[in-house]
Amino acid sequence: MTSTNAFNNILVTYVKPTKKETAFNMGLSLAKTNNAKLSVVEFIPEEQPEFFFFKTKKNKEKENEQKQIVVNALKKFEEKAKQENIPLKTSFKSTESLVDSIIQYVESNKIDLLIVDHPHMTHSEETHYNDVVNTIHDEVNCNMLTLK
After folding, report:
1. Which of 36, 66, 110, 121 could pair with 125 as two cysteines, CB 3.0-4.6 Å apart?
2. pLDDT digits (tens, 9 = 90+) for 43-62
3. Where are the alpha helices (DSSP H) in 84-122?
4. What's the pLDDT tens digit per position in 98-130?
């Protein structure tokens, strides 16, 4: 028997730590409507250390601060999904290549809908982010929804 649901495996991804829940809320709603699996993965771009061969204390503090923001957001998402009786798989990954990591995750986990958050950024970040989203859109082999 085949499923009549539009989506069976939904991934919500955040490419920059944010406090926005728009993408997660959309994923939660679609997972509930389609009786689908829901995953949230935040990919944290690895930044080049100030000194090429090692991370300074300042680099490590910034990295830990970013991770804490992500962990807190994922805990909040887990609580909300539990209230809605939606099983949720969460994780975060540091990556050198954001696009490759997202595409690899989509392919290896048989994702059929990718929801990407579009956080508020500076003009230079916005230009870079738009390039990243366009590349993902061109290379990913599933449906994709980008939310602002």
Report:
1. 121
2. 877 766 555 566 677 777 87
3. 98-108
4. 889 999 999 999 999 999 886 666 666 667 677
Helices and strands per DSSP (H, E), number in the chain: 4, 5
Burial class (CB in 10 A: 0-12, 13-18, 19+), 78: middle
Q: How far apart are CA 46 and CA 79, in angstroms?
A: 28
Tokens encoding 123: 């003009």
Q: How far apart are CA 36 and CA 27, in angstroms?
A: 10
Amino acid at 55: K
Helical (H) or strand (E) element with 111: none
